[in-house]
Design a protein that fits this description.
This protein is of the alpha/beta class. It has helices at residues 45-52, 70-78, 96-106, 111-124, 140-151, 170-185, 197-203, 221-228, 242-251, 271-280, 295-303, and strands at 5-16, 19-30, 34-38, 60-65, 81-84, 158-162, 189-194, 206-211, 214-219, 232-237, 256-259, 264-268, 287-292. It has two domains: 5-219, Rossmann fold; 230-292, 2-Layer Sandwich (Alpha-Beta Plaits). It has a six-stranded mixed sheet, sandwiched between helices. Strand 8 (206-211) and strand 9 form a beta hairpin. It is globular and about 75 Å long.
C-alpha cells in the first residue's frame, strides 16, 4: 500500500427523488489497499459502488477516481477499472474462454493479446481444464471465478467487487478469497462491498461501516473491534425463564450485556474470569462459550439486529 490516493470522495451524495441512498460520505482509498464497504441491505453500498464505477451520476459532493472526475472522464476511468457485479452477467451460450475473448475485445485488445491474457486468467481462476465448456452448467463458484477473471482482462488498477461471494458454499468462498489475496499482493487495489463479517476481516485492510446511507465507523477490522466491542464475549444459555432471573447478576460483572431470546451475550475483557465470577455468584447456565470478539459484534452493535427491507 502506498500514499497515492486512487479514490477520494468528499460529501458524496446519491439521491433517487426524495430518497437519499448515500448521504454525504467521505472516503479515501490508497493504491494497493483492500478497502471495504460493510453494511446491511439498503445501507448505500451498491449505490456508492455504482458511482465509483462511473455508471451512476453523482448527486452531490466531490468524487475523484484515479485523479479524474467521473462526470467528465467516465470513459477513461472505466478503461482502468475492473468490475465484478453482484450478479454473474456471463454469456451462458459461449464457452468459458469465449467469454474472456469477447470481453477483451471490448477493451480494444488485439486477438493475440486477448488469447495470451485468457491463458493467464484461466490459470489464475483455476479454470484451464474447463476452457472449452459452456458456462451454463458450471457451478456457482466457477462462474464467480470466471466473472472476476473477466473483470481482470484489461489489467485494471482498481478492482470493484460488489458482494463477491454471495451464494457460494464455504469451499468456494475460501478459493475466491485466495484468488483476491493474490491480486492484492500483485498490487491491484480492491474495493469490496460485503455483508459477510468474516470476509471483511479476511480481505480488508480498512473498511467503513455504512447504515442508512451514512458512515457510522471507519478503521481496520482490529481497530473497529477495539473501539466498539470488548476483547472477548461470553455466550450464556439458560433453562426456560432462568435468563431473566440471572440478568442482573450478569450485568453487574460485564461491560455490556445483550439479551437475545435464546441467550445472553456478555461483553468483557476476560471471559474466563467473568465466567468464574458468575459461578461464584451461583449463576449456572446450561452452557457457556467464551470466544473472541469479532467484526460481527461491532456490526450488530452499530447497525442493530432488526431486518431492513
Amino acid at each position: 500500500m502506498t500514499d497515492e490516493v486512487l479514490l477520494e470522495a468528499r460529501g458524496l451524495t446519491k439521491s433517487f427523488g426524495e430518497f437519499v441512498a448515500v448521504d454525504g460520505i467521505d472516503v479515501l482509498v490508497r493504491r494497493g489497499e483492500a478497502f471495504g464497504f460493510l453494511g446491511p441491505n439498503g445501507a448505500g453500498k451498491s449505490s456508492t459502488m455504482r458511482m465509483v464505477g462511473c455508471v451512476s451520476p453523482v448527486t452531490g459532493g466531490r468524487l475523484r477516481i484515479l485523479g479524474l472526475d467521473p462526470a467528465v472522464d467516465g470513459a477513461a476511468i472505466r478503461a482502468r477499472l475492473g468490475v465484478c457485479p453482484q450478479q454473474d452477467m456471463l454469456d451462458e451460450d459461449l464457452s468459458v474462454e469465449e467469454n474472456l475473448w469477447v470481453y477483451g475485445r471490448f477493451f480494444g485488445l488485439s486477438r493475440r493479446e486477448v488469447r495470451a491474457r485468457t491463458d493467464e486468467l484461466l490459470e489464475f481462476a483455476q479454470l484451464t481444464d474447463r476452457r472449452h465448456d459452456r458456462v451454463e452448467p458450471l457451478s456457482g463458484g466457477m462462474k464467480r471465478r470466471l466473472t472476476i477473471a473477466r473483470a481482470l482482462v484489461n489489467n485494471p488498477e482498481v478492482l470493484l467487487l460488489d458482494e463477491p461471494t454471495t451464494g457460494l458454499d464455504p469451499q468456494a468462498r475460501h478459493v475466491l478469497w485466495d484468488r483476491l489475496y493474490r491480486l492484492k499482493r500483485e498490487g491491484v487495489t480492491l474495493i469490496i462491498t460485503t455483508h459477510y463479517m468474516d470476509e471483511a476481516e479476511q480481505l480488508c485492510d480498512r473498511l467503513v461501516v455504512m447504515d442508512h446511507g451514512r458512515i457510522v465507523a471507519e478503521g481496520s477490522p482490529r481497530e473497529l473491534i477495539e473501539a466498539y466491542s470488548t476483547r472477548e464475549v461470553v455466550e450464556l444459555r439458560f433453562e426456560d425463564e432462568q435468563q431473566e432471573r440471572h440478568l442482573g447478576s450478569v450485568e453487574a460483572l460485564a461491560e455490556r450485556v445483550e439479551a437475545l431470546p435464546d441467550r445472553l451475550l456478555v461483553y468483557t475483557a476476560d471471559g474466563d474470569d467473568t465466567l468464574a465470577a458468575l459461578h461464584g455468584r451461583g449463576v449456572r447456565p446450561l452452557s457457556a462459550l467464551v470466544r473472541r470478539s469479532t467484526l460481527e459484534d461491532v456490526f450488530l452493535h452499530l447497525t442493530g439486529r432488526s431486518l431492513v427491507d
